[in-house]
Design goal:
Largest sheet: 7 strands, mixed
CATH superfamily of the largest domain: Fructose-1,6-Bisphosphatase, subunit A, domain 1
Radius of gyration: 17 Å
Strand order of the largest sheet: 3-4-5-6-7-8-9
Order of helices and strands: HEEHEEHEEEEEEHEHEHEE
CATH architecture of the largest domain: 2-Layer Sandwich
CATH topology of the largest domain: Fructose-1,6-Bisphosphatase, Chain A, domain 1
Number of helices: 6
Helix content: 25-40%
Number of domains: 2
Shape: globular
Distance between the termini: 24 Å
Length: about 260
């Protein structure tokens, strides 16, 4: 069982990282390329430092795997736990200044995310979830928690609200979408997509393109605790059955294709 004080503590830490990001957002943004040709900015690194320091001061010592410092990670602890962090998810959206970027922090235990926060720095909205405690949305720091729940499977003949990435190839292709039924495709950046499914603002988010463990873990626990699922595999046709994304092998940082379902 997750300590009942940990979700609030984690939300506060994510908000501090969000403040560091917004300080950079307010000025000219310097962008460099990492070895994998993905962009990195001063904001990614500033948020990483805030989160790393905060987790180092956590009540329990738990290893940290961050996108901005994979070399320091030596593996999960004896209980199979580690923190999985994307200090700035949606760096391309950040550089484009379209406001759709997030801070992602998750606690993984025995391969499953059990505690997570996804913060949208521009709006101050935080999505928080803990196993056994549910999922909720907080409009701004100090505000009351608002429990969230997925919308459920759309009625027969209803239009599916499908989310797609702004910066990467969308959905599973036209055949996958046509097999789904009538749909409208809505582009959104970062892990915000899975959170919108979690709060019932969308029905499904298929992702056949590349993602990493830190892109999905925090949003996955939010989605699962809100009644949804994030399952591996997109396939040639929509199928909500499947195994949840698993984080038991952090040395393999790439996720398989997946679908986030709102039921």
């Amino acid at each position: 069982m997750i300590d009942s004080a940990w979700p609030d503590r984690l939300e506060h830490l994510a908000r501090r990282a969000g403040d560091a990001i917004m300080a950079v957002y307010a000025r000219d943004i310097s962008v460099t390329q990492k070895a994998d040709h993905s962009p990195v900015t001063d904001a990614d690194l500033a948020a990483h430092r805030v989160i790393a320091d905060g987790l180092a001061a956590w009540p329990e010592a738990i290893p940290v795997l961050s996108e901005e410092d994979t070399a320091s990670f030596a593996g999960a602890d004896g209980r199979g736990r580690y923190w999985l962090v994307d200090p700035l998810d949606g760096t391309r959206e950040f550089v484009r200044r379209n406001d759709e970027f997030t801070v992602n922090i998750a606690l993984v235990e025995s391969g499953r995310p059990v505690l997570g926060v996804v913060l949208v720095p521009v709006t101050g909205v935080a999505y928080v979830a803990a196993r056994g405690q549910g999922a909720w949305k907080v409009a701004a720091e100090g505000r009351q928690r608002e429990p969230i729940r997925v919308a459920g499977r759309p009625a027969a003949g209803a239009c599916w609200r499908v989310l797609g990435s702004r910066s990467h190839a969308n959905a599973g292709g036209s055949a996958w979408l046509e097999a789904l039924g009538e749909y409208c495709l809505i582009p959104v950046g970062s892990s915000l997509k899975s959170c919108l499914v979690a709060e019932g603002q969308a029905d499904v988010y298929p992702r056949p393109g590349p993602t990493c463990l830190w892109d999905t873990a925090a949003a996955q626990v939010v989605l699962e605790q809100a009644g949804g699922r994030m399952v591996a595999g997109v396939g040639s046709a929509p199928d909500p059955a499947g195994e949840p994304l698993n984080y038991a092998t952090p040395a393999q940082t790439r996720n398989p294709a997946f679908v986030a379902w709102g039921f």
